[in-house]
Every structure is written in structure tokens, then in C-alpha cells.
Amino acid sequence: MREEPSDGNHTDGCTDDCTDVRLRDVLDADLETFLAQEHDPEAVRRSGFTPRPRDAFLKHWRKNVLGDETCLVRTVLVGDDVAGSVVSWWDGDRRFLGYWLGRPYWGRGVGTKALALFLALERTRPLYADPIHGNTASVRLLERHGFQRAGTVHHGDDEHVLLVLSAPGK
């Protein structure tokens, strides 16, 4: 999973739109919304992430995300609407964070609030994220939450910014 693409219009604080941002456990019914969000052409362009076909997507989510007890995953809600997801998982000895928001929720402060709520739940530090290099809004969002640049990594031909959120005082 890769980080949420942004339209570049994130504000540092929440707008009125994100006053009712909440996280909850993922329901199986949420997966159809997540699938549609992953297939949004602009999201694909900005994230550099190749969307999975429906069956592969559902299998991945049910087995590798929801079926992995070491993953922490939440649905992002704005009011009663499913806005996206936030997840953390182990990759070797590193814990990673990823998030994805549907395009209607970009640039409204929803990512800022959702990430703050999730980081209060996910206490593992260091915590890593690796948005694609060109997704500067996602990099800025992570940096506002204390992530610091720690180099670059490659996934295939794509260069990603490696960011790390360290324990306080480190």
C-alpha cells in the first residue's frame, strides 16, 4: 500500500470538513470503496501505484491486511462516509505506515486529522513511510507529523522518499 496522493492543497490545520473525522475498524463492505479509490486515475498517477484487479485486491486485503494480526488498520470516516484507510505493517524489522484517501477528501485536512488519530493508536517507533518522490503533499503531511527524511528507496523503477518517525528524544 502506498501513501495517499494529494492535490497539493493540504492546509496545516483542519478545515470545517475534517471536524468529524473518525477512525473505526475496517468492515468488509469498506473494501469496495477502497477498491474504487485505488482505481481512481488521478490517484494512480499521483501515487505511482498500479491498482490491482478486483479479485487480487480483495484477496490481498482479506488475507494480507485484515488477516494479518500484526497489521493495524482503520477505516477513515468523514461523518458517515468512508473516506479511506490507514494501515501499519511489518516489513522485515521495520514497521511501515500507509494511507489512502478518496479524491473527494484531498486538500480538506482529512489526512491531517486521520493521521494524527492513527499515530495515537500506532505507538511503534521508529515508524517508516515511503511515498513516491513526486507526491510532495504526502511527504509534507508526514513531515508535519514529525517524520524526517532518511534517504530514498526504490520500488521497481520508482524512487520513493524514505521517512521515519523516531521515538521522542531520539
Describe the structure.
The protein contains 5 helices and 7 strands. It is of the alpha+beta class and 170 residues long. A 7-stranded mixed β-sheet has the order 1-2-3-4-5-7-6, sandwiched between helices. The longest helix is centred in the middle third of the chain and has 12 residues, at 54-65. The radius of gyration is 15 Å and the shape is globular.
Nutshell version of this structure?
This protein has helices spanning 30-38, 41-47, 54-65, 110-121, 136-144, and strands at residues 21-24, 72-78, 81-91, 94-101, 127-129, 148-155, 158-165. It is of the alpha+beta class and 170 residues long. It is globular, with a radius of gyration of 15 Å.
User: Overall pLDDT, averaged?
Assistant: 89
Order of strands, widest sheet: 1-2-3-4-5-7-6
Multimeric state: single chain
Cα-atom radius of gyration: 15 Å
Q: Structural class given helices, strands, pairing?
A: alpha+beta
Please describe the biggest sheet, giving its number of strands, its sense, and whether it closes into a barrel: 7 strands, mixed
**SS summary, helix count:** 5
Distance between the termini: 27 Å
Rough outline: globular
Q: How many β-strand stretches?
A: 7
Q: What helical percentage do the residues reach?
A: 25-40%
DSSP strand content = 25-35%
The ordered H/E elements are EHHHEEEHEHEE
List low-confidence stretches.
1-15
